[in-house]
Design goal:
Number of helices: 11
Radius of gyration: 20 Å
Distance between the termini: 15 Å
Largest sheet: 5 strands, parallel
Strand content: 15-25%
Order of helices and strands: HHEEHEHEHEEEHEHHEHEHEH
Strand order of the largest sheet: 8-7-9-10-11
Number of domains: 2
Mean pLDDT: 89
Number of strands: 11
CATH architecture of the largest domain: 3-Layer(aba) Sandwich
Helix content: 40-55%
C-alpha cells in the first residue's frame, strides 16, 4: 500500500524550510489541523482518520477556488484528489499544475508528490452500459489514486446475459466487485449470484421514463435478494472506489 506522509511532518518541514511562518504552523496545529478560508474549512486531519486527505468536490466551486484548495491540501498532505469537475476546470488545473493527472471521462483530477504503481488486490469494476462508464471510471480512478489497481469491464448489462457469462472467470477471480448500472439496476444481483465476493453496487441516473433519475435503480439494488451486496448513492462512483479501498486496507492492515 502507499506510505502516506504525516501532515504534521509536512508542516514541520515547511516551517524549517521557511515556506510557512512560526505563527502559521502554530495556527494549523492549534486548530486540530484545520485551515479556514473565506469559503471553506480544510480538514487536514482527515489524513490520520481516513489515510487519505480531504477530497475536493468541485461541482459548484469556481476554478479559482478549486485551485486554491488544491494548493492548500497539497502543501500539507502531499496529494490532492478532485471529483465532479468539468472540462473547463480540468483545463485550468492542467495549466496550473503540469504534473496533475486529468481523467476527463470521470471528470476527476489527481496530483501526488510520490507516484506508486497501483497494486493488484483483485478489484474488478463492471458497468452495465456505455452511458454508465463515467460513473464506473470515477470508481476505478478513485481506487487507483489510492493505490489499488482496478480492472475494468464495461458494457456488460443483463439485456444480453452472454456478456456476463463471457466474463465469468474474471468475476469469480475478483476479490471485490464494483457494479455500476442504471435502468432497472439488476446487474449487481446477477453478479452477486455468480460469486462469493462482496459486491459494491452503484446506481446511476441513466434510464428511460420512470427511472426517476436513478431512484428506481437504487431501490432495486437495495431490495436485491442476493446477499453480499452493499449499495452507495446514485452516481457515487467516488464513494464506491473509496469503500473498496477501505475494505482492502482493512484486510491488509497488520494485526
Amino acid at each position: 500500500m502507499h506510505q502516506e506522509i504525516s501532515p504534521i511532518k509536512n508542516i514541520l518541514k515547511d516551517l524549517t524550510s521557511n515556506r510557512i511562518s512560526l505563527e502559521e504552523a502554530e495556527s494549523l496545529l492549534n486548530n486540530n489541523l484545520t485551515e479556514s478560508l473565506s469559503y471553506a474549512t480544510i480538514d487536514h486531519n482527515r489524513m490520520f482518520f481516513k489515510n487519505f486527505p480531504e477530497v475536493i468536490y468541485a461541482a459548484g466551486k469556481s476554478s479559482d477556488q478549486v485551485i486554491e484548495l488544491s494548493k492548500k491540501i497539497f502543501e500539507i498532505s502531499s496529494k490532492v484528489l478532485i471529483t465532479k469537475s468539468n472540462r473547463e476546470v480540468n483545463h485550468t488545473l492542467a495549466q496550473e499544475f503540469p504534473d496533475i493527472q486529468i481523467n476527463d471521462v470521470a471528470n476527476m483530477a489527481f496530483r501526488s508528490k510520490s507516484y506508486e504503481e497501483p497494486k493488484n488486490h483483485g478489484l474488478l469494476v463492471l458497468c452495465a452500459g456505455t452511458t454508465d462508464i463515467p460513473v464506473a471510471e470515477e470508481a476505478a480512478f478513485t481506487a487507483e489514486c489510492m493505490g489499488i489497481k482496478a480492472e475494468r469491464v464495461f458494457d456488460v448489462g443483463i439485456a444480453g446475459l452472454s456478456r456476463i457469462i463471457n466474463n465469468l472467470e474474471k468475476i469469480r477471480n475478483a476479490k471485490i466487485i464494483i457494479t455500476v448500472a442504471g435502468m432497472e439496476g439488476a446487474l449487481p444481483s446477477v453478479v452477486s449470484g455468480l460469486t462469493a465476493s462482496p459486491v459494491i453496487a452503484v446506481p446511476t441516473s441513466v434510464g428511460y421514463g420512470s427511472n426517476m433519475e436513478g431512484l428506481s435503480a437504487l431501490l432495486s439494488m437495495l431490495n436485491s435478494c442476493s446477499p453480499g451486496i452493499g449499495v452507495v448513492n446514485i452516481d457515487n462512483g467516488f464513494g464506491a472506489g473509496f469503500l473498496a479501498n477501505a475494505m482492502i486496507n482493512s484486510l491488509n492492515r497488520p494485526q
